[in-house]
Every structure is written in structure tokens, then in C-alpha cells.
């Protein structure tokens, strides 16, 4: 038996673990002393490796390349040579006939690692010559990246996950950490045990609300109104740090003007909260010697998400809770490597290391390094994944090369997404499982899974961590970056790498932010947080040291915007608000965790709809009864979970199941800046069956 060091492939907490391997089988996982988890794991960490042993519970593993030569035809097994030749030929044809921007690509935010994401964005930019490359950050923390870059200059957590427990006040806003990041939730509990005040802003009585000093059960869709009211109280009661604001921020007067209509008393009808609750929350937050704001999808999956992120960052600026230990802003990223996917430039507006694609000098630098003519580089921001269905229906996007994502399960308004896919000429899916999206692909390219390769992940607190290969793949599969390189070479751009480290070092040379993060340093230290600009730099546990922000002026930007109502409000036909949520036992589209026996046993009920007893009684629905849940876009069957922790007037479902797939119901009202869909709010009705 041997023990292999790895990093959990599920959430952004980045827990280190040891995979215990007997022969070529994994027999168990053990917690390891990682910087974020310190010898603890949640259930997914302990039991989320089982799919590597080919348990085949739900979704078949992709075991060989396949091609569907004609639309409507059957997928046929083919050799790797044929799969690469055919894919390259079709992509080259579409590029020649419709231009580079007719081809869309994705990186992957999970088990594949940073090296592959670097290679995928290089393929899009150097081979296809498009910035059409994106990742699932678009549908989760895209607004955090955009909002924090605008206000503070970096789109990531300011402090370390391990620092959360040292803060003396945690403002937990739209973030159910117990379900989405259980190990982070333990840090929150530890902060409480260390004497921190906990303020939870969430419509539901989530787990963290049980230990909160204050739980603000705001109305669904009122985030901006509440954040503005918080800002109003800080100014009106003079709770803000005047000296800090004067020295390190800009925009106070415009901010004051923007929040003046948001006195807590004036917005009680929007927030559903008393003025006293809002005022008390800010008195607690402002009085704490150190305070941290944490948020999740309850902030970002709205049509007005970037504004709310900017507003939350402004609260930290107003109170001087940045630029030191135990404070800061914490958008805790969802998938295990979504921070890394963004770092590596699988974004339509950034090269690796957050260098803008619209910057001619950056384009010149990358073009020279990649051996192509700078004039061939796309000089416009590319397409975002949430725009693909619309652009496909308009005939502007013709081909979609999807790596390790399942948009036909995870994107809003699946009816629209299916229509968009039907309009595409060519769909390539590179994955480990026969996902919903893989089922409609023209080409299937089977890749190695986490556990069958090594690499580097970035966890939610900007920490780079290496993970190792544990077992040999059992099928005719290849590494993601090897597959991409073969297609690139077949398309006339010679691309070859011998190792992860070779890719990593090429990336480092091009990214000042990450230059000092060598494989050796990660090996020695285990967890290196960017920025790390030089070889002797130890990494950066907290951003904005000395309150120097990464904005053009070096100052933090205060910001507030008027509250906008969600796009679709409840009415007499669809009287309830639907909000999508997570389930602790499974992750994302469930393709990996659904193939793990222990996790599947733990959470095997497909789809629930949580509702308040008052709504259930009015609708004649009993607990555990099957119900129809309908919106203007679709109808799904689900099982009622009647629960007093749910706020009246709203229902909650997970998107992780094929039965009760709530994205059949959600709508794609997009945030105008980040393009993130409003999956936390649409109008539905529930009917007993
Ligand atoms: Fe840690 Fe997240 Fe994995 Fe759980 S799912 S072990 S919290 S990284």
C-alpha cells in the first residue's frame, strides 16, 4: 500500500488528503495537514474517490473516443488518431468558413488542474485565434471577480481561509458554508468559539444562523437594498473610519449620495427587516477590532450581482477592514479549481495572470511567446458561456469545444440551452463521464480523471497546491492537455509538452503575479498564495498590505447603486420564488459524487423542493409528497420537504439531479457586467400530485 498526496477535487476549500492505494485501487482517503483543512475533511473528501474504482453507479465513464459523424446518427467508437483528425478538420473548416469567433471553448474548474487550463486558453488564442474561452466562474463567482477588481483591484479572497477563525466579526452574506464548504464552516464555528460575533444575512435559517448573534432573514432579491442600508447606517451614525476612508479610498461623496435613499426605515418594505436589525448589525460590524465579510452564490447569482459585490467591498473599505490579518472580503469560490481556471486565463477578457486581452502590450507578449503573429490575436473580449445559446441561435457561434463542464445540467433555463445546442454545427465534449452534455456531442474525447494525473490547483484563498497521480487509468484515455496539444498540432500549430511542470514554467514566465510559484516551492511549502512575483517571495497571505489597492489610482473605490428588482416577480399564476441551492452530499452536476457509493447512499433522493409549512398547508402539500414544480419555462417532478427553516413565499431546489432538475425552471436574466444568470430568483408554482 502507498499513500499519495492529493487535494480534494470538489469545493474551493482546497483540503489536502492522502489517497491510500493498494495495487491500482484506491482503498480510502485520509485527511492531511493542509493549510486550509489542518487534518480535517468533510464527507466528500473522505468518500469522493470511489468513481476511480469504476463503481458505475449512475453515469458511465468515457472509455474510448467516439464520433457521431452525422447529426441524429449514433456515436461510434473510433481510434484516437481518427478522433483527433476529425476534430481538427471540423474546427479548421468552421474557422475558415465562419471565422475564429464562431468557435467557443471552455476550461474546467475541477479535477483537471491549472496546467490544462493554461493549455486550453492557449489553444483558443494561439490556434483558433479567439478569446472565446470561459469557465463555470461565469455562473458562480464571476460577479465577485468583476466587483472586487473594480473596487479593490484583485478579484479574489483578500485573506486566507485559515485566517477566518481569527476574525472578531463575520458577516456571512448569502453563503451557506455548511453545505457548500463544510471545512470553511468549521472555521466559522471556531471563530465563534474564539469569541467572534456572527451576523448571517440569508432568507433561510441556514446552519450558520444557528450560531449567529444576529440572523437577518432578508427577503429574496433584496440584497442591494440591504447593502445600501448598511452603508447608510455606517455614514449616518458615523460608524465608519474617517481617517482610513480619507487616506485610502475614493468616491465617498458619490457613495453618500447613492445610499441616501436607503435609510433602513425607508427600505423595510424591500428587505423585510426592521431598522433596528440593520442598525444593530452595522454597529456590531463596525465596532469589531477585526471583521470579515464572506459571501457565496446568494450574492452572485442575481441580475444585480456585481453591484452587490462592490457594495460589500465598500463596507470593508468604510470600516478599514482590509490590508491586514483577520479582516477582509471572502468570496468563497465553489468548484475546487475555479480560482485556478480564472488565474490561468480561461476567461474571455483575461490572459493568464489577469492580463487584459484588450491591452496591446499583453497581446504582443503572449503572441511572441507562443510564436504567432500579434496581428493574428483576437483583440476583443470573447464570448461568455451564458451567451452561447443565444449566439448559437443567431448563427454566430457554430462550434463548441467543452472540457469538463456540463452546461446541459448546470446552466439556467435548460430549454433555451438545449435549443442553442441543437443549432450548433459541431460539439466536442472532453470529459470523464457520459454527462447530459456528452450525450449530445459530435465527438467525445475521454480524459484522465483526478487521481489519474497530477498538477496544481488553486483553492479559494489564492493558494496554489500540487496534487499527485495515484492510480493508472484503466481505459483508453489521455490527459486533457495532451488531447488539446494533439488537436492543435493536427491543425498546423505544433504543440507538445512532456510534463505538467513544463507547462507550469511556461505559464510562470508570462505571469508576473505567479512567477515565484515554482514546483519546488509548492513542494516545500505546500500552499503558496499569489501574488508571488519573485523566486524568493514567500507568497501573500493577505492582499493590500499597507492599504495599497491594485486599482489604477492605488485607492479603494467606494460604490453603491440603486436596487433593481429581480427580472421575474411572483404573480397570481406563479406565486412563489424559486431559489437554487446546494446539497452537502453531492457536488456540482453530481457526475463524480454520484458515482461514489457512500455519497450516493447518503444522498440518494433525486430532487427535493423545500417549502415553509404555511405554504405547504395552503397548497395542500404534505411533507415527502410528490409535487409538480412549474415555471413559465418548464415543469419538473419533485418531493416536498416541508421545513420551518424555509421562509414563507419561497421554495428551494438543487440543480444536481436529473429528476427535479430545477434549471428546467430557472431563467437567464444576466448580470449586465459579469453575464451571470439570476438562478437565485424566478417565479414558480407548486402543485400536489
Ligand atoms: Fe474540503 Fe470541500 Fe473537499 Fe469537503 S468538499 S473535503 S470541504 S475541499
Automatic annotation (TrEMBL):
Q: Per its Swiss-Prot or TrEMBL entry, what cofactor is needed?
A: [4Fe-4S] cluster; Mo-bis(molybdopterin guanine dinucleotide)
Per UniProt, what is one GO molecular function of this protein? 4 iron, 4 sulfur cluster binding
What's a GO cellular component annotated to this UniProt protein?
A: oxidoreductase complex
Cited PROSITE patterns: 4FE4S_MOW_BIS_MGD, MOLYBDOPTERIN_PROK_2
Say if the entry is tagged with keyword Amino-acid biosynthesis: no
Q: Does the keyword 4Fe-4S apply?
A: yes
Which parts of the sequence belong to the 4Fe-4S Mo/W bis-MGD-type domain? 1-56
**Name of protein:** Formate dehydrogenase
Organism (species)? Franconibacter pulveris
Amino acid at each position: 500500500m502507498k499513500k499519495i498526496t492529493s487535494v480534494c477535487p470538489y469545493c474551493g476549500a482546497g483540503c489536502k488528503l492522502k489517497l491510500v492505494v493498494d495495487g491500482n485501487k484506491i482503498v480510502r482517503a485520509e485527511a492531511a495537514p493542509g493549510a486550509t483543512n489542518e487534518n480535517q475533511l468533510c464527507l466528500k473528501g473522505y468518500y469522493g474517490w470511489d468513481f476511480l474504482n469504476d463503481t458505475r453507479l449512475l453515469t458511465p465513464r468515457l472509455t474510448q473516443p467516439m464520433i457521431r459523424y452525422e447529426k441524429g446518427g449514433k456515436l461510434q467508437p473510433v481510434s484516437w488518431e481518427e478522433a483527433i483528425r476529425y476534430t481538427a478538420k471540423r474546427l479548421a473548416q468552421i474557422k475558415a468558413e465562419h471565422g475564429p469567433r464562431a468557435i467557443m471553448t471552455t476550461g474546467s474548474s475541477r479535477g483537471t488542474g491549472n496546467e490544462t487550463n493554461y493549455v486550453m486558453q492557449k489553444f483558443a488564442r494561439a490556434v483558433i485565434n479567439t478569446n472565446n474561452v470561459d469557465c463555470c466562474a461565469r455562473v458562480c463567482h464571476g460577479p465577485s471577480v468583476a466587483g472586487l477588481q473594480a473596487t479593490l483591484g484583485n478579484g479574489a479572497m483578500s485573506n486566507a481561509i485559515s485566517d477566518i477563525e481569527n476574525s472578531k466579526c463575520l458577516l456571512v452574506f448569502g453563503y451557506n458554508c455548511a453545505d457548500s464548504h463544510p471545512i470553511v464552516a468549521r472555521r466559522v464555528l471556531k471563530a465563534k468559539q474564539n469569541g467572534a460575533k456572527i451576523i448571517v444575512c440569508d432568507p433561510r435559517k441556514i446552519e450558520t444562523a444557528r450560531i449567529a448573534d444576529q440572523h437577518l432573514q432578508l427577503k429574496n432579491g433584496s440584497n442591494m437594498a440591504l447593502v445600501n442600508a448598511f452603508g447608510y447606517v455606517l455614514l449616518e451614525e458615523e460608524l465608519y473610519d474617517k481617517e482610513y476612508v480619507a487616506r485610502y479610498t475614493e468616491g465617498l461623496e458619490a457613495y453618500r449620495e447613492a445610499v441616501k435613499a436607503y435609510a433602513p426605515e425607508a427600505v423595510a418594505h424591500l428587505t423585510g427587516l426592521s431598522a433596528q436589525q440593520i442598525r444593530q448589525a452595522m454597529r456590531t460590524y463596525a465596532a469589531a477590532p477585526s471583521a470579515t465579510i464572506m459571501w457565496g452564490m446568494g450574492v452572485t447569482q442575481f441580475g444585480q450581482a456585481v453591484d452587490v459585490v462592490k457594495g460589500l467591498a465598500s463596507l470593508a473599505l468604510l470600516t478599514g477592514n482590509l490590508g491586514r490579518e483577520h479582516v477582509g472580503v471572502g468570496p468563497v469560490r465553489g468548484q475546487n479549481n475555479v480560482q485556478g481556471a480564472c488565474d490561468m486565463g480561461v476567461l474571455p477578457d483575461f490572459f493568464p495572470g489577469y492580463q487584459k486581452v484588450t491591452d496591446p502590450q499583453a497581446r504582443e507578449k503572449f503572441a511572441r511567446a507562443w510564436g504567432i503573429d500579434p496581428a493574428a490575436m483576437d483583440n476583443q473580449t470573447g464570448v461568455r458561456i451564458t451567451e452561447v445559446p443565444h449566439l448559437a441561435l443567431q448563427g454566430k457561434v457554430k462550434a463548441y469545444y467543452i472540457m469538463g463542464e456540463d452546461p446541459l445540467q448546470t446552466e439556467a433555463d435548460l430549454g433555451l440551452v438545449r435549443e442553442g445546442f441543437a443549432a450548433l454545427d459541431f460539439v466536442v465534449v472532453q470529459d470523464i463521464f457520459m454527462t447530459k452534455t456528452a450525450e449530445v456531442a459530435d465527438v467525445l474525447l475521454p480524459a484522465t480523471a483526478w487521481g489519474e494525473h497530477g498538477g496544481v490547483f488553486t483553492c479559494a484563498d489564492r493558494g496554489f497546491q500540487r496534487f499527485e497521480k495515484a492510480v493508472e487509468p484503466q481505459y483508453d484515455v489521455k490527459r486533457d492537455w495532451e488531447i488539446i496539444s494533439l488537436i492543435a498540432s493536427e491543425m498546423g500549430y505544433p504543440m507538445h509538452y512532456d510534463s505538467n511542470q513544463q507547462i507550469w514554467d511556461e505559464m510562470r514566465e508570462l505571469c508576473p503575479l505567479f512567477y515565484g510559484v515554482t514546483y519546488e516551492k509548492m513542494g516545500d511549502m505546500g500552499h503558496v498564495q499569489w501574488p508571488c512575483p519573485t523566486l524568493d517571495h514567500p507568497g501573500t497571505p493577505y492582499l493590500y498590505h499597507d492599504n495599497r489597492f491594485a486599482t489604477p489610482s492605488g485607492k479603494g473605490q467606494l460604490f453603491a447603486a440603486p436596487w433593481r428588482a429581480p427580472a421575474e416577480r411572483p404573480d397570481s399564476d406563479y406565486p412563489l420564488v424559486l431559489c437554487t441551492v446546494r446539497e452537502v452530499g453531492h457536488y456540482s452536476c453530481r457526475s463524480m459524487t454520484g458515482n461514489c457509493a457512500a455519497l450516493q447512499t447518503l444522498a440518494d433522493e433525486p430532487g427535493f423542493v423545500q417549502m415553509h409549512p404555511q405554504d405547504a398547508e395552503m397548497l395542500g402539500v404534505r411533507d415527502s409528497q410528490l409535487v409538480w414544480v412549474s415555471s413559465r419555462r418548464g415543469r419538473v417532478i419533485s418531493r416536498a420537504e416541508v421545513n420551518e427553516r424555509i421562509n414563507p413565499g419561497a421554495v428551494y431546489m438543487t440543480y444536481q439531479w436529473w429528476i427535479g432538475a430545477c434549471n428546467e425552471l430557472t431563467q437567464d436574466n444576466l448580470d449586465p457586467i459579469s453575464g451571470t444568470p439570476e438562478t437565485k430568483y424566478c417565479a414558480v408554482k407548486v402543485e400536489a400530485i
